[in-house]
Design goal:
7 helices; five-stranded antiparallel β-sheet; single chain; alpha+beta; 260 residues
Length: 260
């Protein structure tokens, strides 16, 4: 028994000395350093999704830009998207696991519909962001759940506050942004946006759209074709969340090329 007890304590001490190994078995267990490894793994799932998304808020316009990757030649490209309407005026770009993305979009749509049924008007962007974040945070507290492996970026034009841009991460954290990014090249895109927004704090409609596309081109070191990316916009002329057609994307790419 003493031998068995000694082996047990040896293994326990050895496990703890390896920097938290074994503390990732359950989402509800903190490591001695105060970390929740399963939540960190959810962030890693977003970063390893091989997708990068960018969102920019201008003076009166919002844009989201993301890569469009069709995994198989037999798949209908029109059925592959990372851009989703939550309401007519609020849209989201989802970066991470596609299955988790669709599940969270469905939940967000339900929350928006319930709000309108209860109060009689469309849910504001910041309220929807808070509700989605609350759902994500609850998923970090229970052993029978796991966090969504996806980052949601919401955009919409609020009747009182104007253009609104929010990002919700797998931990249930949300903040409003002037510009933000998510996915594989998040840090590089954030650095680009910080420098660009500092130089050009007030972007008009075309500059807002082109800034988002140029950011993605820069961090991926690629010249896009219109079918390589998805772009969605909310603007004063068309306040609802709507995707740009391939012809409209091509026009923006031509404008960027002429600027260069």
């Amino acid at each position: 028994r003493r031998v068995h007890g000694g082996i047990f304590f040896f293994l326990l001490n050895n496990t703890m000395s390896r920097g938290g190994a074994g503390y990732d078995r359950h989402i509800t267990i903190f490591s001695p350093e105060g970390r929740l490894y399963q939540v960190e793994y959810a962030f890693k799932a977003v970063r390893t999704s091989n997708l990068t998304s960018v969102a920019v808020r201008g003076v009166d316009t919002l844009v989201v830009v993301t890569q469009k990757k069709v995994p198989d030649k037999l798949i209908d490209p029109s059925s592959v998207t990372n851009l989703f309407n939550i309401t007519d005026k609020i849209g989201a770009v989802m970066t991470g696991l596609s299955t988790d993305a669709r599940a969270l979009v469905a939940r967000a749509r339900q929350e928006a519909a319930d709000f309108k049924f209860k109060f009689g008007y469309d849910i504001p962007v910041h309220v929807l962001a808070q509700k989605v974040a609350d759902i994500g945070q609850v998923y970090t507290q229970h052993a029978y759940m796991r966090p969504y492996g996806v980052v949601m970026i919401l955009i919409g034009i609020d009747d009182e506050k104007g253009p609104q841009l929010y990002k919700i991460d797998p931990a249930g954290h949300y903040m409003g942004y002037k510009a933000t990014a998510a996915g594989q090249k998040e840090q590089e895109a954030t650095n680009y946006l910080e420098k660009h927004i500092k130089k050009h704090p007030a972007l008009n409609q075309d500059d807002t759209v082109q800034t988002g596309i140029m950011c993605l081109q820069s961090v991926l070191s690629a010249d896009f074709r219109p079918t390589d990316i998805e772009v969605a916009v909310c603007s004063p002329t068309v306040p609802r969340f709507h995707k740009l057609t391939t012809d409209e994307i091509a026009a923006q790419l031509d404008a960027i090329a002429s600027r260069d």
